[in-house]
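step 4 of 6: structure.
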Amino acid sequence: MNAWGASDAELASAARAGSTDAFARLADRHQAALRAFLRRTCGDWAEADDLAQETLLTAWSQLARWRSDASFRAWLCGIGYRKQMTWRRGRARAARRDMQYLEAAAEVSPGAPAEDRIAVRDAMQTLPLDQRAAVALCLAADFSHAEAAQALGAPLGTIKSHVTRGRARLLQALGADDE
Amino acid sequence: MTEADRRLQAIFAADAPPARDPAFVFALLHRLERRRLHWEIAAQAALALVAGALLWGFWPEVSQVLIAATPTVAACAAALAAAAGLLFLGRMLDPLSHKG
């Protein structure tokens, strides 16, 4: 049970029984984590949001496969990660356009300085996809290493190593000291 | 957490979508309903195909049953048509039925 009412397991059970309202509440609860993960690994925000919707639709049709003792958001991110890998295979041509888009988005986003955001996003795009995904879950979001391992279907040690290496690359791009 | 980690988190925070996003959920439910409709149509089409294939496969037997049943069905249909005709005529010829 959490602050918004029923637990994920209760909502998933109701959604499996055909409740659209329960599924809408599940989607509302987890959309931010899923979209943030896909935005950070995918780079293209519009494409990431579209992938997030596809992910949630797949999750709806596969709700029976989710085990209630596992984290729902990790399960969702796992589906999203696999969808993104499929999507990525067919779109190397659009990479240059995406980089231009990212630079433009970084310039208008509030918060950290634009040059830092561009540096980090450029560095993220140079990381291998599995390393980028581990960084997006563990450093950018509040996933534990175990949860990230579940989402990405990788051993715990691999996730830890990805996060350590990815973090070092990002800090190097920022010109920051690791202290 | 180091100062560098805090900087990284601040940069990543710019990518975060809102915690609640009714427009996103509404668009998702719209796609969900469309997908349900497509599945329903596909299921009905599959059912129609199966029924058609069964009818085609068993047509010799089905046609025998239809031929055997035709005299009975025809007699029933004639009796029903006669009853309906008599009822109609009866109402037309009844003077009370025109007085309103």
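step 5 of 6: annotate
 - The CA atoms of residues 7 and 13 of chain B lie 10 Å apart.
 - Chain B has a mean pLDDT of 89.
step 6 of 6: archive
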